[in-house]
């Protein structure tokens, strides 16, 4: 088995850094191309669009996107410095699992490597598990890196 294109969804967490390192190792072994991506969520209540978005919220979203872009550029360079072909993607205004799966389809990824925050109890009930949703809905292998 070989993996030609690895998708690596990331955020600012330590577990994302560990998942990125795993993706780097896989890409070296298999000679894979890598796409590193982030989802910039506007609001957990995305369907509630009848409220006007406050300027402070708009500013926060723009800052989050700028930060995500800088973070992804840094990770892209990490792969390039190791001789690995890499791209970056930012998804907006989609639930995180949907964004990840859509990008996997778009770039024709054949492996997703991502971290799991390991939420349990009430946090898992309220916030859900992105990794669990991606793994259960993906048509390609998903390697979930845990703490």
UniProtKB/TrEMBL annotation:
The lineage of its organism: Bacteria, Pseudomonadati, Pseudomonadota, Gammaproteobacteria, Moraxellales. SUPFAM superfamilies: Adenine nucleotide alpha hydrolases-like. The keyword Chaperone does not apply. Its main location: cytoplasm. This is Universal stress protein. It is found in: Cytoplasm. InterPro entries: Rossmann-like_a/b/a_fold, Universal_stress_UspA, UspA. Keywords: Cytoplasm. Residues 3-146 form the UspA domain.
């Amino acid at each position: 088995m070989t993996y030609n294109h690895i998708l690596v969804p990331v955020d600012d967490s330590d577990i994302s850094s560990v998942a990125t390192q795993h993706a780097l190792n896989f890409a070296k072994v298999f000679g894979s191309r890598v796409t590193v991506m982030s989802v910039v969520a506007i609001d957990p209540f995305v369907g509630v669009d009848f409220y006007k978005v406050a300027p402070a919220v708009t500013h926060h979203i723009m800052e989050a996107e700028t930060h995500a872009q800088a973070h992804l550029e840094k990770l892209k360079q990490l792969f390039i410095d190791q001789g690995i072909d890499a791209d970056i993607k930012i998804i907006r205004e989609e639930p995180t699992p949907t964004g990840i799966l859509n990008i996997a389809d778009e770039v024709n990824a054949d492996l997703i490597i991502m971290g799991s925050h390991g939420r349990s109890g009430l946090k898992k009930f309220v916030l859900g598990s992105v990794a669990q949703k991606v793994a259960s809905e993906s048509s390609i292998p998903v390697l979930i890196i845990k703490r």
